Amino acid sequence: MAVSSVSEPATSATTTAVPALTIRHLTARYRQIEALSDISIEIQAGEQVAVVGPNGAGKSTLLKAIAGLQPITTGEIRVFGTERPEPNTIAYVPQRLQVDWRFPVSVSDVVLMGRVGRIGLFRRPSRHDRELAQRALERVGLAAFADRQIGQLSGGQQQRVFLARALAQEARLLLMDEPLVGLDIPSQDEIFRTLAALRAEGVTVLTALHDLQQAARYFDRVMLLNRRLIACAPARVAFTAANLVATYGGHLHLLSDGDGLLTVADTCCDPTPDRTL
Amino acid sequence: MIDFLTTPLAYPFMQRGLIAALLVGIVCAVVGVYVILRGMAFLGDALAHTILPGIAVGYLINGADRGALFWWALGAALISSVSIGAISRAARMREDTAIGIVFAAMFALGVALISTVRNSAVDLSHFLFGNILGVSAGDLWRIALFGALVLLVIILFYKELMLITFDPVLAATLRLPVRLFDLLLLAMLAIAIVVAIQTVGVALTLAILVTPPATAAFFTHRMHTMMMAAALLAVIAGVAGLYASYYLSIASGAAIVLTSTLIFMLVWAGSRLRRRNL
For the domain A2-80+173-265, what is the CATH code? Predict the structure, then answer.
């Protein structure tokens, strides 16, 4: 059980000519099951959007489809106006548990991996690449850990290493899949501080989240997803009783307390990431 | 003491054997780092065995010409490694299942082919158990050339190979040709194994691929240092093993592998003691 109360969303981001992300009539399957059905959204450059929905709602499938890691059945996905964006445009931070933490790489090695696409074949990282990696580590507060083996870091620090890697990649669209799962509160705050820093640089962010309160507090818009798109709007607009019931169905209980809506969402018992979708 | 070290080297076959042990040890240790990091140990063992039909066919066609056998072995290893990937994708089965099928089938094919030839046992036992002291000058050149090729490829594609090994998801979002690099790694593994067959043989190749990197993993935390440490450990095991083989009159391949295992156990014990004292 997660108790969330809806609060005021952050201010809207500035709008520019070409949207960072345009999805039209997207349908995608995951293991023969239709995971996403007729999704259409537009996200402006610099916007930070949270994707919420129950387990199996297709959050991960959506992020992977945008990152080009998941084939889509029909529809189109345009990133900064093109269906085939330059490879470094998108940074995708998967759920935490998917790499071998005993792997013999240092923190700065992992961050430099974000530069591999820009460095190109047969070249070694230049001083510029190393400086960018170092600066990215400073921005997530891990400069002191650059030479540590990644397995020696805490869960929150490991997550921030992957954020730093996305920064070093100089991506313009950052996709994060449940970055807060398993993190303690200080680590979560550190992630949100980094997101705030990204806002200043105009990086567009799309993050899958479990916690509706965090979605409302830290993000410009909230996307309610349950295989189809229920709503994609600022939290105070999106979090209506009807939308939340449509998203979470029977797992949700709504309480009205006068000036706000108190939602008691059973986002499923399991604190571990949903491995299926 | 000096005599102890120089006496064996008076023999040219010992000199060639020593150089072969060093070259093969270094190449296999460096490639072996990928083997242990990617969990390819079973594939490595399988590839070493799938070489047998290549050697048998080569023997039937070209006789005991070592140069020709090398190419037949390499061909068999490359075909096996590619077909394992293709079978596991086409039949949608786990890769280790596909490895098991190809491994067993190829080895059986090799045994069947060999059984058609009489008096083949002596020549082919070199390939099963290795004969590092029978390495010719021509063998040495082939080992050096292909070993250098493998190391050059690893240096050239170091950051890409590290990325696809550590985080294939990032490699895919950066649109690196992941499948191509996977094939490249398989080809390098095949070369390393074929080169190793001559020194330690089919049955023990896995040990020189896996043991030095596994030993290095106890005390290294970066990939390039792990590679260098593994290569150094392989050199030590190669030299010490060869001398042990000379003075104790035991099979050279077995001596090298057992020395390597001994070092592994010492380093393991050392790292446990160190951790307890910290």
Answer: 3.40.50.300
